[in-house]
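Reagents: none. Just compute today. Lactose-binding protein.
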Amino acid sequence: MKTKHVLAAATTLVLAGGLVACSGGGGGTASQGGGGGNDATNCTNTIPKADLPVVTMWAWYPNMETVIDNFNDQNDEVQVCWTNVGQGGDEYDKFQTAITAGTGAPDVIMVEADRIPTFQIQKGIVDIKDLGYEDVKGDYSEGAWKDVSVGDGVYGVPVDGGPMGMIYRADIFEQYGITPPTTWEEYEAAAQKMKDAGGPLFGDLGANVPAVMMALQYQNGATPFGYDSSKPEEIAIDLAGSESKEVLNYWAGLVEKGLVGTQDQFTPEYISGVIGGNYATYISAAWAPGYLTGAGVGEGEDADVWRTAPLPQWDSSNPISVNWGGSAFSVTSQAKDPALAAKVALGVYADEKSLEDGWQNQVIFPLNLTALNSDAFVDYEIPFFSGQQANKEVYVPAANDYTGMTYVPFGQYYYDAFTQQLASINEGSISGSDAADALQADIAAYATEQGFTVK
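Predicted 3D structure written out:
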């Protein structure tokens, strides 16, 4: 069998950084620790109950110190030694080194959901199905659990997510007589109406956000990948089906007609355009208000003009909710006591005090149903949206309807390859259909090189 080849190849993947959407937009990070791994003497926090066993953790949420203090104060079985070794890619690089060396990893690690299969195939994280999962299974939706699962195994505890919606400029919509489109057909018609009237671009196709296009393909009924850890040598790849091509052709058409921009997102240039009213909409997720606020959006002339609406649908008779971003706590294979580590992964950032601090400060969009469906959260009048009850109107229904997506062990290569194809679309050198065909050939060839049998 090719399993050993697959595992060996996976360890060579370069886990590049980028925007960590699930961290509330990266609006700040905690102090950067030098590592620590399983060394409980290198903690950012103070451990109040020194006589209890200690579990080490790496995580980068901006309010992590508050969360850890809450857990340690409330817990009489275990204490957490927390270190921030970097956000996103920086942490993953250190974890990758620890996996390869067989030492140096913490007991519990924060990871984005789409990275879980990569670390799972390397046996860097463990299945928690028999480590307390059943006790908290009902605290999260099926979609949230699917995002942190590989096959029948559960490899993380979901913390926050990114149900998608359409953020828009209410002042620009009003000026040009636009109502929030409910379908992508209406979205294009509104974009054309705005252009014909001399208005700004309606949106933006950033080549550096392939996860958005993947989500929209899922929304259109595509199933880009099929992967089951019980058959680690096999992977199903369908990136050029009619559903995927329809999405890419649609956005290529918007670009060709000059209805949307082609600026890479999360750049100073893009943010400047957002603030300046160059874009009428921003297709994004529930974490976006935190990110935008941290980037200075909504504080000057663009204050009090932002609203949000449900994501337009490809088929209004069959609405589908999709997600962009999200992270979890996983138990590593180097955990000194996996059962005790699982208690931490399952219990940290799950208490009412921490969850409330997280969502009120725009650090997380909570997936814990106690918070997600609480009156306080559902009815919250979000300041960035000028008091709009965006959770009730857009994000909570989307989160509750979300059924999950399947990620793959070489997600970063896929995203990089997809970015190249989106850049070609933006340059006008390739059609959406041709981009899908090229992506299918590239990813299938890469998977085969890594030892997978492509189905």
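Residues 3-162+324-386 form a domain with the D-Maltodextrin-Binding Protein; domain 2 fold (CATH 3.40.190.10).
Action item: order primers for follow-up constructs.
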